[in-house]
Write a structure and sequence with these properties.
- This protein has about 725 residues and is mainly beta.
- It folds into 6 domains: about 5-140, Immunoglobulins (Immunoglobulin-like); about 145-240, Immunoglobulin-like; about 255-345, no CATH class; about 350-435, Sandwich (Immunoglobulin-like); about 445-585, Sandwich (Immunoglobulin-like), CATH 2.60.40; about 590-710, no CATH class.
- It is about 5% helix and about 50% strand.
- The chain has 3 helices and 56 strands.
- Strand 16 and strand 17 form a beta hairpin.
């Protein structure tokens, strides 16, 4: 058996012995991932990377859509299965049980090339009362990345930087080598500009030179042994390095920092020795070969050293970049040699900006515990800086955001950070800039406030809009607070600043009392990871009772009085943001007892012992103690009927002397149907009832039906 096949066989044998142990404690017999038209399974595509099993799959786009199928060992034992949210993907639908055969869920990945520690985290709730079980399926995205060097220009000149474009199918997956890499006669580095990968080559020796360029990737590909491979195939290119028209003199320092010392005293450098170089002489270094160029620096030759080098003082006066072209070493106006090096300003931080999630760049250097921010440092010579931040975690992954004038970092503020001021340092030197840690101050929904106006408390956030009816005497209205709800786990809101407006009116909407409770500060409870930093004498403790505030006590309010309550965040504390909750507490009554005087007219009276339907009476007067009934879903609105008992003076206003006029007083039980209009002063109710004539000894019972007149004042 060939050696390569033997190695492959042994590897697969070893992998096969480990995979059963990996899946032994899993709730799933198989996990299948469908990406585009390709299907991957845990049993066939699990490999070992970074010392742990990971399920590998190939992708072409950063935002691939995938379907995940999970075949459980015991479908009946799983009561609920859910996939946790992640910053690496979006859930396109929820986990679905497909006919008790398998579970499926669809996701859309985000930035697969830059994502780290990609995995699916499933929460499995079985049919018992045991806590949910968490199962993590680690994923290894792999992609085929190609880089080609297609240029046929192979001529280089000593000391002259040349830039070539490289063709790649996935620029994001290439690790850029921004620093110069030294090789045999050719120095090179990589850069990215406008979505193009560039190769910079600086030759420093004559002849035919071979460049062996091996690039690294962020996401691997799999080799024939199914191992992750982060190195791309070596790109080999042969160049012909020619001598320039002038002798190129190498300086041992490729970059000089321009400061007061470099301008006056100079920087000690060494250059290659040449027979045309005179010692103890000052040479001008200009930016053009012709006379009259800009003075970039002066080179003073001091003495030779043993390695065929010349020790010199270099004084710099202007900035220069290697990419801007050659520098010319002149004796007076006569050009003697060419060279090239960079003269850059000293590292200076001029401005710092912060980008919060969902916001814009701001000069406000305030950050919150637990959040992830982008920090932009602007200035000069920043490519030479090495910035450190007190207690912050640097999670920056994109090196293309770092230039000579700007650097962008992605930083995580620890949830338990104890500092109030985060210093920013460059190589342990304070930049005089700092971030200020401020506790979260975000308005939270009112689920931490309860209102009690009867026998039980209600969460304010859950109280429905509309009137809240109370049928009994309102003993008090009490607001309670649950600080442990405000901050939970890593979701922080901070101190809650509240105002409560109270407006009390009677049944006619006349104002009885009006108060505002200000400066209510509810601090998060001891379960908050930032509890120790929320302390303060202004934190509101205990409940708030309206009877301790109102002049007219709640238990002294009349029926159909209303207490309008408005709870709002103090928007001055939240930059104009906040939540407002309005509640309308109404003292409802089901019935009302009153004495009513009305004037029935034209009553049809049926007397006991008489045949027929009775006679029509004249205008009578009734004084009734009656019960009125309120509509259960409307405020202070009567139902159209009343029931009562009292006295009826039949034909009380008939002053005729005719003996046919029957006047009498009877005790009656009466029901009335009233019009439901509220604004009418004059109404005509319909009466129905019966009674007992007080003056008659025989056949005193009678019944009546007819209209009446009712006047409201």
């Amino acid at each position: 058996m060939p050696s390569e096949k033997r190695i492959l066989f042994l590897f697969l044998l070893w992998l096969g012995s480990l995979l059963p142990g990996y899946a032994q404690n899993s709730a799933f017999n198989e996990v299948v991932l469908k990406v585009d038209t390709t299907v991957y399974s845990r049993s066939q595509n699990t490999i070992y990377a970074n010392g742990e099993p990971q399920m590998a799959f190939t992708y072409d786009n950063d935002d691939e859509i995938a379907e995940v199928n999970l075949y459980a060992k015991n479908m009946a034992a799983i009561y609920n299965l859910s996939l946790a949210n992640s910053a690496d993907y979006n859930l396109l639908d929820s986990v679905v049980n497909v006919n008790d055969q398998y579970f499926k869920v669809k996701v859309k990945f985000k930035n697969l090339t830059t994502s780290q520690f990609l995995n699916f985290t499933f929460s499995i709730q079985d049919t018992t009362a045991a806590p949910p079980r968490v199962e993590v399926i680690k994923l290894l995205p792999v992609t085929n990345t190609t880089v080609q060097f297609t240029s046929n220009d192979t001529d280089l000149y000593v000391g002259e930087e040349k830039t070539f474009e490289l063709t790649t199918n996935n620029l994001k997956n290439i690790r850029l080598q921004t620093d110069w890499v030294k090789s045999d006669g050719l120095d090179y580095r990589l850069s990215e500009s406008n979505g193009t990968l560039r190769l910079h080559i600086m030759p420093n020796a004559l002849g035919s030179k071979i460049l062996n360029l091996q690039l690294q990737t962020n996401k691997p590909t799999l080799n024939k042994y199914q191992k992750p491979q982060y190195h791309l195939p070596v790109i080999q290119k042969t160049f012909t390095v020619k001598a320039s028209r002038l002798k190129f003199i190498n300086i041992d320092k490729k970059e000089i920092t321009s400061d007061e010392v470099a301008r006056t005293k100079g920087v000690e450098v060494m250059i290659e020795n040449n027979w045309a170089i005179n010692l103890q002489k000052t040479y001008r270094i200009e930016d053009q070969e012709q006379p009259g160029g800009v003075l970039i620096a002066e080179l003073f030759t001091r003495n030779t050293v043993t390695n065929n080098r010349v020790l010199c003082w270099l004084r710099v006066y202007n900035y220069h970049r290697i990419s801007e072209g050659y520098l010319y070493i002149k004796d007076g106006d006569q050009t003697k040699f060419i060279t090239n090096f960079s003269i850059t300003p000293n590292t200076t931080v001029k401005n710092i900006l912060v980008l919060h999630e969902g916001g814009d760049w701001t000069n406000n250097l305030t950050v919150n515990p637990g959040e992830i921010i982008n920090l932009r440092i602007e200035g000069e010579g920043l490519h030479k800086a090495r910035f450190q931040f007190d207690d912050l975690t640097d999670i920056t992954s994109d090196s293309s955001l770092r230039t000579e004038t700007a650097r962008v970092y992605k930083l995580e503020v620890p949830l338990n950070i104890k500092r109030k001021r985060i210093g920013i340092y460059n190589r342990a030197i304070n930049t005089n800039f700092a971030l200020t840690v401020r506790e979260y101050q975000r308005p939270r929904t009112f689920d931490f406030i309860s209102i009690n106006y009867g026998d039980q408390s209600r969460v304010v956030a859950a109280v429905v809009d509309g009137p809240l009816f109370h049928d009994r005497v309102l003993k008090d209205v009490v607001f309670s607070f649950n600080p442990s709800i405000i901050d939970r786990d890593a979701t922080l809101y901070g101190r809650q600043y509240l105002d409560i407006d109270i407006r009390v009116t009677n049944s006619r909407n006349d104002l009885i009392d009006q108060r505002r409770i200000e400066d209510i500060v509810i601090c998060p409870g001891e379960n908050s990871p930032r509890y120790a930093f929320y302390g303060g004498k202004d934190c509101t403790l205990g409940d708030i009772s309206l009877n301790n505030i109102l002049g007219r006590k709640t238990y002294d309010l009349d029926e159909w009085s209303r207490i309008e309550i408005t709870i709002r965040h103090d928007k001055d504390k939240y930059g104009g943001e906040g939540i407002v909750k309005k509640m309308d507490l109404v003292l409802r009554r089901r019935t009302k007892f009153d004495i009513d005087v009305s004037f029935p007219a034209g009553l049809l009276v049926k007397k006991q012992g008489e045949s027929g339907y009775g006679d029509l009476g004249g205008i009578s007067m009734a004084m009734i103690a009656q019960m009125s009934f309120y509509h259960p879903e409307k405020i202070a609105r009567y139902r159209p009927y009343k029931v009562g008992a009292g006295f009826l003076a039949l034909n009380a206003f008939n002053f005729s002397s005719s003996p046919d006029v029957d006047r009498d007083i009877g005790a009656v039980i009466i029901g009335a149907i009233y019009p439901t209009t509220r604004d009418s002063k004059l109404t005509f109710p319909l009466y129905l009832g019966g009674g007992y004539f007080i003056s008659k000894k025989t056949d005193p019972w009678f019944y009546f039906l007819g209209p009446g007149i009712r006047v409201r004042f």
